Amino acid sequence: MKKVSTFFRLHVLSCLSVLVIWGCTGTTAQSNNEDKLKIQEIISQMTLEEKAGQMTQVTLEVVSKGKDPFNIIQPLELDEAKLRNIIVEHKVGSILNCGGFAHTPQKWQDLISLMQEVATKETRLGIPILYGIDAIHGANYTDGATLFPQQIGLAATWNRELVEAGAKATAYETRASSIPWTFSPVLGLGKDPRWPRIWETFGEDPYLISEMGVAMINGFEGDNTADKFRVASCLKHYIGYSTPLSGKDRTPAWIPERQLLEYYVPSFEASIKAGAKTIMINSGEVNGVPVHGSYKLLTELLRDKLGFEGVAVTDWADIDYLHTRHRTADSQKEAVRQAIMAGVDMAMVPYNVEFTKHLIELVKEGAIPESRLDISVERILKLKMDLDLFEHPVMSFEDYPDFASTKHQQLALDAALESITLLKNNKDILPITKDKKVLITGPNANSMRSLNGGWSYNWQGSVTNDAIEAENTIKEAIENTLGKANTIFVPTITYNEKDVYSAENKSSFKKAVNAAKSVDYILLCLGENSYTEKPGDLESLVISENQIELAKEMAKTGKPIILILNEGRPRIIREIEEVSEAVLHAYLPGNKGGEAISQVLFGDYNPNGKLPYTYPRFENDIVPYYHKYTEQLPPSDGSVYQKSLFYPQWEFGFGLSYTTFEYTDLKVDKTELTSSETVKVEVTVRNTGKRDGKEVIQLYSSDLYASITPEVKRLRDFKKIEIKAGESQKVSFELPMNKLAFTGRKLNKQLEAGEFILSIGSEKVSINLKDSKTDI
């Protein structure tokens, strides 16, 4: 068939579309109708092979120079023969990944320009490539890009506006790299710290996750993803991925359906309503069914109930895993059939085109109707149009003067500062005055890698220390603040190549003990090295023995210890907390983390972060704050163990400040309400300290009695405010009663009449719901 110019054909279609919908006053409706006509015209001309190709995504390594995808030549260059084989011969429509290393924006532009040149000029229909990347805390696979705190740190800010602004900057710098699609945000329920991807989540609370997820999507996508400064977001990982029973990555999850609907669905539902363009599917299985093969989850729940209309993409090689890991398919071909019929639109293959071949065969054999492919291809082409790839398949780096700008760097610093959470401060030992002398030690004291975590310059973040020169580690930032004369750095514990702790520590401990004799404070920088996914699986949640030993040795010196926690998940540290006068939790604060920690330590910034999860005290006591009443009661059988069963190290939402806040006069505008009404809640917050400060006002509800055992409390809303020393503010919330609904026994949302307690801080007020309502 003779090739027809896509640009010419779409231009004609645009003109025809105007005639067809002449008189339509809504420009958005007109544009949508035009795009639909264009897409239908393209699909009508597509061969089966072209449709299957559009549903295929391969990794960058497949089209790069080298003996094979696992041995590509560095610095990376495209192999034009391989590229044409993938795009022209096999019609592949999407490429992802970074080839193992970050690239400059100009390099990205060169790589993607060649891909788009081949796709738009050498294929029959000229459909552009859709490129995707894991830009999860900034454009983290682009050299020089602004790197923000990881999601768990952003959650600790409890600042919707800041999260949206950071995502907007990330979108800008990702588009500056000619990449229009980011695999972010993660919306999993991060309530099990054993899971190695807890730091990629927004924490344990469904409402906090929902609010932060929507803020991030708004920042990524804005009102129009065709904007050259915006990208398409991708919700991860639908659904139930974040709480495997074993705590180990990609192992089975067992989640009762009622709990799935009550705790796991809300964040995805909110983000779908916010307009998220794509969604990535959970690599694991839920209740014995791999999600990639679940029609119930991918079609009945995701499409029919939640109303998602965008592209559903697999995670890495997960269709093959239906055969090789989950074993629900006796062949890779059967795996393709299961996944496509369940509702998958695009397969992240990623190393070959076997998926494409199997899909074509299945259609020819009648096992999959071609009309099923049309549905997915329409979604994919719509996404490409929504991103303006047909008109502008490549960006020009020169159009992005704010790439890594001072403005973006300040935003990253602001996010790092607001994320830092002060968990302990005995006798107001912090902040430290700048005339003091300090000892800095611990494995994270002089590491950019531990500040950033995984997905930083490469998958595991292992090259971060070499990739960054201009930014400061914790040690360097403190030296810049106090001067080298007042800082002593003694390297003690280090990480070996396998990311575990080396045993060569004993002699270095003695050096640190001797150095402590001449200082006023010990800054103990502990936590974890970078990791993600399966390499981050744990044998024990307790922090490593040699870090505990180091802390105990430092405690013997009698000098006050300031513990600086820099970790991706809450490791058990109760023995270290006991010997520390202060605890500062930095999570994974990104490139500006060292500077942010220094500003907080020495009083240049008043900390205001709040925990986005419950920090456990014991390894066998991992309980979220929204536990049931039976999970907090002590034994009643005369046992000597009489502590509450809910006994964390620190509770969800906790965080100290260098000032103090007092909550008074909590009131509601009415105490008797119907299910259709909204209650106005007001509280007075006073800054009773001597410093200006920010505070997160958290509104909780407690359902006293219900047909499903109620939780002790649930977060319903929050606001972050700033109050000057000595001043007060009235803070109000409007709480629709339907927000108090829960998933009932018949799996519908329902409200039940009765008493509820609303609480902010230690203040409480009672309201009464006069009627019940189902199917909310």
How would you characterize this protein structure?
- The two termini are 54 Å apart.
- The strands form seven sheets. This protein has a six-stranded mixed beta sheet, sandwiched between helices. A five-stranded parallel beta sheet has the order 4-3-2-1-10.
- The protein is 32% helix and 17% strand.
- Helix 3 crosses helix 13 and helix 6 (151-157) crosses helix 15 (406-419).
- The chain folds into four domains: 1-45, no CATH class; 50-399, TIM Barrel (Alpha-Beta Barrel); 420-601, Glycoside hydrolase family 3 C-terminal domain (Rossmann fold, 3-Layer(aba) Sandwich); 661-774, Sandwich (Immunoglobulin-like), CATH 2.60.40.
- It is built from 22 helices and 27 strands.
- The chain is an alpha/beta fold and 776 residues long.
- The protein is globular.
- This is beta-glucosidase.
- Its EC number is 3.2.1.21.
- Residues 1-29 form the signal peptide.
- GO terms for molecular function: beta-glucosidase activity.
- It catalyses: Hydrolysis of terminal, non-reducing beta-D-glucosyl residues with release of beta-D-glucose.
Task: Summarize the entry for a quick read.
This protein has 776 residues and is α/β, with parallel strands linked by helices. 32% of the residues lie in helices and 17% in strands.
What key phrases describe this protein's structure?
776 residues, alpha/beta, TIM Barrel, Rossmann fold, 4 domains, six-stranded mixed beta sheet, 22 helices, 17% strand, disordered N terminus, Glyco_hydro_3_N
